[in-house]
Write a structure and sequence with these properties.
By secondary structure, the protein is mostly beta strands. The protein has strands spanning 2-5, 7-9, 17-21, 24-28, 36-40, 48-56, 64-70, 77-81, 89-93, 103-105, 113-115, 123-125, 133-134, 143-148, 157-163, 166-174, 181-186, 195-197, 205-207. It contains no helices and 19 strands.
Length: 209
């Protein structure tokens, strides 16, 4: 049931973390020592098998956004809740990579989020994941991870793109707030499963290959 990276952090109380396993959300208030079930990610007549990304809003710890995989013929999608998981809302249905981390919030503009889907451009939301539209002019194969570089004008976005056992993974980079990306590096492996960039030294980025 574990895919992507589905741990979220409370924006105020840093010892409070959330983890989505399958379609169930757990919470710890003691930095991971003990966990308790708090919610199930579900929509009417739709079941989800895995959660690839889970974001807790920096403005409201009861507002969560998740990228979930459907079961059977159910299309993958982004869902959101504003009442800590009591009720969920459907935002957009698009397939994404099974092992990817397709959802990323802008660390400096938390209402802005990006969603990486298969065989298409990035999608962007400016209302905390409620509505989405195609944003970039670059078509990706299957985004593994997305990083919005912190501490700046959010003009640099990094995308790790690749498909398991198919060709070579690539790092892509945007500049100047443009939705156009350029390839900056091709890796020997087929995927770039995870990336990170520190607010304290945002000129450096790291990725797993």
């Amino acid at each position: 049931t574990v895919r992507g990276s589905s741990i979220g952090v409370n924006p105020v109380h840093k010892n409070t973390l959330y983890a989505a396993m399958g379609n169930m959300v757990y919470r710890t208030r003691d930095a991971g020592e003990t966990w308790n079930y708090v919610a199930t990610i579900a929509l009417p007549s739709i079941a989800f098998s895995r959660t690839n990304a889970f974001v807790v809003s920096a403005k409201d710890s009861n507002y969560w956004v998740a990228a979930v995989q459907g079961t059977g013929t159910t299309v993958d999608r982004v869902v959101w809740t504003d009442d800590a998981g009591a009720t969920w809302n459907d935002a957009v249905a698009r397939y994404f990579g099974e092992y990817g981390i397709p959802l990323e919030a802008d660390p400096d503009r938390p209402d802005t989020m990006y969603f990486g889907v298969d065989s298409d451009s990035l999608m962007r939301s400016t209302d905390r994941g409620k509505t989405w539209s195609e944003w970039s002019s670059t078509v990706f194969r299957s985004p593994c991870d997305i990083v919005v570089v912190p501490e700046g004008d959010s003009s640099v976005i990094l995308v790790g793109d690749g498909i398991t056992s198919s060709g070579n993974g690539r790092y892509w980079r945007s500049t100047g707030g443009s939705p156009t990306f350029a390839t900056t590096f091709t890796v020997a492996g087929s995927e770039i499963p995870g990336m990170a960039c520190s607010r304290l030294r945002n000129s450096a980025a790291f990725g797993t290959n």
